[in-house]
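Reader question, answered in our methods column.
A reader sent in the components of a multi-part assembly and asked whether the whole thing could be modeled at once rather than chain by chain. We filled in our standard form and ran it. Here is what they sent:
COMPLEX SIZE: two components
ENTRIES:
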Amino acid sequence: MKKQIWALLVQSLTALQSKKIIPVYDTSCIKIETSRGSEHGDFASNIAMLLARIVKSNPRDMAQNIIDHLPESEILERVDIAGPGFINFYLKPNVHQSIIHEILTSDHQYGDSKIGANTPTLIEFVSANPTGPLHIGHGRGAAYGAAVANLLKKTGFDVSCEYYINDAGRQMDILAVSVWLRYLQHCGVDISFPDNAYQGDYIIDIAVKLHADHAEKFILSSDNIIVLLAEEDAELRLDQLIRYCIDSLGEMNYRTIFDAGQHSILIRIKEDLRDFGVEFDNWFSERSLINSDAINKHITKLFGHSLIYEKAGAQWFKSSKLGDEKDRVLIRENGQATYFASDIAYHLSKVERGYEKIINIWGADHHGYIARVKAAMQAFEWPLEKLEILLVQFATLYRGKEKLQMSTRSGEFISLKELQDEVGKDAARFFYIMRKSEQHLDFDLALAKSQSNANPVYYIQYAHARICSVFRQIPAKNFEYHQAEALSNSANLTEPHEIKLLATLARYPDVIENAAIHYEPHQLAYYLKHLAHDFHTYYNAKQFLVEDKTIRNARLTLIEATQHVIQDGLRLLGVSSPEIM
RNA sequence: GCGCCUGUAGCUCAAUUGGAUAGAGCACUGGCCUUCUAAGCCAGGGGUUAGAGGUUCGAGUCCUCUCAGGCGCGCCA
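And here is the structure of the entire assembly that came back:
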């Protein structure tokens, strides 16, 4: 519909251009907006005000000029000038109704678009370190990433979802040593557990299983360990314990403990995500980059490059030359690559795998990291415009008034699973999506629980269930409904409630496209709330199952179309559409 | 100290990405079930968009400064 209005405007402007009333103007700049309120018609354009500025004339005169040159149209009732120079378009009442036919005959493709042009797209999200279960902070990234992925698929992008597993590095070693110490305790070795090792009870579960699988294979006498535990520098203490564990048990045994921890946690992460309705196409291991020597391969390419230099035995990347605030180490003094180095290799792999659009969804605490990744992309002469880094603000956890620092290490967090068990998948997914991603999120589980019944998701689902219920009752009332027949000779739906609902349904493709290109799934959530409201209002105002067959059929096609759109919209947000509530 | 994000109704958040009279839900007040599901509908009160300047036909949105909150500034990941 919007496109038809747009075409009319283009014709008018072309005519004005040929008459030299206005200069040649890029027609793609013409913006048509869906009017906020019906008092401003169905659609509006601000083009007259923009053009008036260019030719320095009165906006309302310009608007009149444009209207005078509009071609005849079947769909327009009238066109007005309003306010400072808006052009408002009013559609003929029966025009709205064609949207039903479009929705019901498109086989659930309504709202699809091709703007993505099958662009190979990689969305990387969640990517939490496998050092503990996912918590409610990760849940936000999961819900957001999955919704963005669905929206991009809907708009024609060829999307793959990927989880980057940070299975290398110090955090993982701390996890391994945490498991080992719990294992020793479980075996009766009398040692204390460091307060900066991983505190969560899940570590004990892993240790118990490690003992079940390997008996007492990893036991060492407590004497040396007690000495190491006495170290005052907490971080040094952990590093020394890691070193000691590797040296005394041997690489092989250490790796067994390490893998026991990682695998068990990763399995749980995968389960939690699946239960949350979030699926990944690929799980990409950081260690696979190290094992395949990909990092060295790429980094050595940079050696000799003017942006690489050596200082204090380490290899540095001159990222400060490319917009970063300081230079960064790639290869440490001890010869090991930094996390940044593996991340460069990882991003290069994304490009090598042929992705034209690379989307990273990161927690906002990583924002300081953006500049150096972009600097690296420039150094490698990768196309910077392919990379899109979306930040999701952190969830702050509250227990009543008290603010808690959510941390996997301290075991101070509410797990995603816990949230899901308390409020259910649908309410949890919607709770996250309702908020714009850059909005800070205060999370109080007690509040989330108490408000779960007030969650707007039920309002939307209820509309869907009501529609299903209406259709269930058709046979009992001795009515019949044949969609094709109903569509072919439908009465006019001209009641105000019906026109409003039709107009809202017509907006769906626009909402999808906007939500997709701006990566803002919350727009869809708010739209669905609005759609449900229009339906509930209609439901209370009019009876659908009435004696008059033509009216009955027309109304049934309308609510069936509504049902389709609600289903599709909720699906994109990862929420179910129950038939009974 | 520097950088990024945020500040909108009592609370939680929107606002078509610079548009017209800033809107929803919760909470509060009143009304609507002998009619397709009352997890619903209708009506009402509630605002100096943190503050001060600026840009223009037009600013919650853009720029500058101030205030307040969050996060980040490792040879951690």
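What stands out: Residues 251-275 of chain A form the longest helix (25 residues). Residues 427 and 455 of chain A are 6 Å apart (CA to CA).
Send us your own complexes using the same form.
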